């Protein structure tokens, strides 16, 4: 059982613990209740961040949209590195053969004549559609230091945590289809200057995120069994929600938020 003095990352160099004192006799939640507690964390998803609300209600300027796309690129390129860390730490072949799909989704592939440019390339095309050049996206010149720190914290967590905890940290994807659908519903109306082909990344992710979540949720519900472990899973999910929120804070500070 982890204790109230442990930190939530399991590594010695991170922030002090934010654990609430736990009742050692609290019974474990059943799978339905545990999943409900995980989903409840969606109230802190960055879909509610003022910067995201601005983007998705048509109030963002082209500069703010370009800033967001250029900064989010750093998250996009980190995801397959994070997923490779999960693979590297996971001794379970069945999990690995499913998990590897995530790397293919983002990096793309050419296998037996079938080709997919992948999510990173799709994100670059989004960048081109909003008026950035390929070079200024990929050389990371616009990435804000605090965004870099937040994203790096995610990769470092996945490198050092037990693989099931890294899997759990991906569960912000529970809430991602909604944010992608929101963009697809509002951007064409508000930002007619963006070629809609540039929004393909969001279209692809709606179904990919649902599939990811099915796997991530199954691992999490199976692994975190005691109440104490379940509380830890909630902490991990909140840590990841904080990363996404902090990225938006950094972008709001750099690019401003229009009322
Ligand atoms: O646009 C978004 O708001 C958003 C959020 C998240 C997320 O919740 O972590 C992901 C994505 N997009 C995404 O496109 C993606 O591929 C992805 C992978 C992961 C992950 O943690 O493994 N999160 C996300």
What does this structure look like?
- By secondary structure, this protein is mostly helical.
- The chain has helices at residues 31-40, 50-56, 62-89, 93-107, 118-129, 134-138, 145-160, 163-169, 176-190, 200-223, 227-255, and strands at residues 109-111, 114-116.
- 65% of the residues lie in helices and 2% in strands.
- The longest helix is centred in the C-terminal third of the chain and has 29 residues, at 227-255.
- It is globular and about 55 Å long.
- 35% of the residues are buried.
- The structure holds pyrroloquinoline quinone.
- Pyrroloquinoline quinone (PQQ) binds next to α9.
In short:
The protein is mainly α and 259 residues long. The chain has eleven helices and two strands, in the order ααααββααααααα.
List its salient traits:
disordered N terminus; binds pyrroloquinoline quinone; EC 1.3.3.11; 259 residues; PQQ biosynthesis; pyrroloquinoline-quinone synthase activity; mainly alpha; 65% helix
Secondary structure elements and pairings:
Blueprint (H helix, E strand, L loop, with lengths): L30 H10 L9 H7 L5 H28 L3 H15 L1 E3 L2 E3 L1 H12 L4 H5 L6 H16 L2 H7 L6 H15 L9 H24 L3 H29 L4
Antiparallel strand pairs: 1-2
The protein binds pyrroloquinoline quinone (PQQ).
Low-confidence stretches: 1-17
Order of strands, main sheet, comes to: 1-2
What's the quaternary structure here? single chain
Structural class: mainly alpha
| Average pLDDT figure | 93
Q: Name the hetero compounds present.
A: pyrroloquinoline quinone
